[in-house]
Amino acid sequence: DASNELANDPPIQLLGRITTVKELLATGLFQNEEIIYTQKSGERKKLEGRIDGLFYRCSCHNEVMSASKFEKHAGCTSHNQNDRIMLWGEQSLHAIVAYLKSLGSAEEQLAAILELKKKNEDRKASRDQG
Ligand SMILES: [Zn+2]
């Protein structure tokens, strides 16, 4: 029975619809996921890190910082850090929130988040296979 695998995890539920990056991070569903700071999608990465609570931890110093500090640490300045912080190097946090906002209910958002996470796991798995 495949459901046994998840038996120890509490059921995942969103407290409400996600409308901001802060709310996205507050779900905890992206805890410890890889991020990179880049000027725009496809460009060479400037800084790697991971999501840590509502903040970002750089991989070079293991230091937890805000989005604006993470950006400064990458040697950049902008007014839209969340457009440049890319989850898994794929999509900016802002783009993910915009996508989630286009969905109707918190349940649909949760399903979409789990789908994103699964796609990433699949990508990682196929990458690891060579
Ligand atoms: Zn650092």
Automatic annotation (TrEMBL):
Entry-linked Pfam families: TDBD (PF16135)
Taxonomy, superkingdom: Eukaryota
Chief place of localization: nucleus
Localization in the cell: Nucleus
GO CC list: nucleus
Tify domain location: 49-90
GO molecular function, one term: RNA polymerase II transcription regulatory region sequence-specific DNA binding
Signal peptide, first to last residue: none
Keyword Cell inner membrane set for record: no
Keywords assigned: Nucleus
GO term, biological process aspect, one: positive regulation of transcription by RNA polymerase II
Protein name: Tify domain-containing protein
